[in-house]
Specification:
alpha/beta; 37% helix; Uracil-DNA Glycosylase, subunit E; binds uracil; five-stranded mixed β-sheet; 219 residues; three-stranded antiparallel β-sheet; single chain
Length: 219
């Protein structure tokens, strides 16, 4: 699925940042739907399965609603290692350090950009569903504004790294269909988003039908 040399290179590129573990994308080589998240968390780096923690459970509920199984889609994220921050806390008179998940930085996203570039180019998905702002910006270059554009299909070139030794993103010649969704974890902080997300999922369901996308797992 991935050239090992590319994985090694990208693991080296992320080494200088506070990130740990490595989670491969998961799903069929010719998946017609690709889901792109932000970065794995603690659960994912321990079991190697993308979206297997709390956000993953929420994502599975969304997939069930769509009538899609995990085997139907390729699931990955902008960054494949867990970005963490260390927080010191006092407990029973002792200072303990704990790692917390954090949003990846632009440099970390660039360090792992060749992996997503490779996945998009080789899988050629009919629809790329971006989960959250970080994924949307990584894929389309669009900053902010998720509140306005979620749930509407866009047809646009996607960003890719110019060269392995470059930190410049350029556009693909090819256009892709991108469907921006909120990140599933967003509902943990704002339950009211659930209704909007389910409306977006209804839209996505229609597109899946219109595109004649083949689903094997759940159907
Ligand atoms: N969030 C992501 O973006 N990816 C995961 O694998 C888990 C949570």
């Amino acid at each position: 699925m991935y050239p090992e040399s590319l994985v090694k290179e990208c693991q080296k590129r992320i080494e200088k940042y506070p990130c740990e573990g490595f989670v491969y994308g998961q799903g069929p080589e010719k998946a017609e739907i690709m889901l792109v998240g932000e970065a794995p968390g603690e659960t994912e780096i321990h079991n190697g399965i993308p979206f297997s923690g709390r956000a993953g459970k929420q994502l599975s509920e969304f997939l069930d609603y769509l009538g899609i199984s995990r085997e139907d889609v390729f699931i990955t994220s902008a960054v494949r290692s867990r970005p963490y921050k260390v927080v010191k806390k006092e407990k029973d008179g002792q200072i303990i350090e704990k790692k917390y998940n954090r949003t990846p930085t632009q440099k970390e996203i660039l360090a792992h950009a060749p992996l997503l570039d490779y996945n998009i180019c080789s899988i050629q998905p009919k629809v790329i569903v971006t989960l959250g702002k970080i994924a949307l910006e990584r894929v389309t270059g669009m900053k902010g504004n998720l509140e306005k554009i979620h749930g509407k299909m866009m047809i646009t070139p996607v960003q890719k790294l110019k060269r392995l030794d470059s930190s410049e993103m350029v556009w693909t010649d090819q256009k892709y269909k991108i469907f921006p969704l909120y990140h599933p974890a967003a509902v943990f902080y704002n339950r009211r988003l659930l209704q909007e997300i389910y409306e977006d999922l209804d839209q996505l369901k229609n597109y899946i039908k219109e595109e004649g996308i083949r689903l094997n797992g759940a159907m």
